[in-house]
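User: These chains co-purify. Model them together.
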Amino acid sequence: MLHSIDITKERCPMTMVKVKLKLSQIEKGDMLDVLLAEGEPLQSVPRTAEEQGHHVEEIRKEGAYYHVMIRK
Amino acid sequence: MERKKLSIVCFSGDFDKALAAFTLATGAAAVNWEVKMFFTFWGLNILKRKTGRSWIGSGILARVFNFLMGGKKTLPLSRLNFGGVSPLLMTGMMKKNNVATLDELIDAAKELNIDFVACEMAMHILGVKQEDLDGHVKDVAGVATFLDVSKDAHIVFI
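Assistant: Joint model of the two components:
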């Protein structure tokens, strides 16, 4: 199942907090599409997702933002 | 993989320092650290159920102290407080810039299952009981317990 979250309006630490809470709500095997801005979110979200045992399948630029696809 | 641990001693009841403590706590929990927050002395004000000024506590002095210190809504800014106006202005500026407010950070800390522990000794001095504090406070403990649960954790004092 595909879920999505937009953290482009969030600031530290809520960027990471929102992704963490969303990942905790979805089922294992589900995909989360995180829309985020470059800089700290783009650096931290994929890295910490991998550290927590999730799989980052794709990072795609769209306009000024990025889609980070995380498989739980 | 073993989770990293962070224990934060929330000693200060200043608005800005509470923000720093909860930012660090929620940020760490969001990247999967196991986080405990230990509230002592002025830090207890952040957790009082009565968020404004109220006469809680046992004994006249304790009641006066608690009234003057107030709760979460009356935390002073550590500098340039201007009689309590600055924390309100600061919260407005934070909202305008999409930065999480103290209330939002505290709610996030609860959602992230961060443990809140209240200092037994400070509560005793101030005559504050566990029922006077936020329901998320699961434990009232002393320094020995705090050190024991934090023995392989990073400890930060704010």
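The domain at 5-157 of chain B is CATH 3.40.1260.10 (Hypothetical Protein Ychn; Chain: A,).
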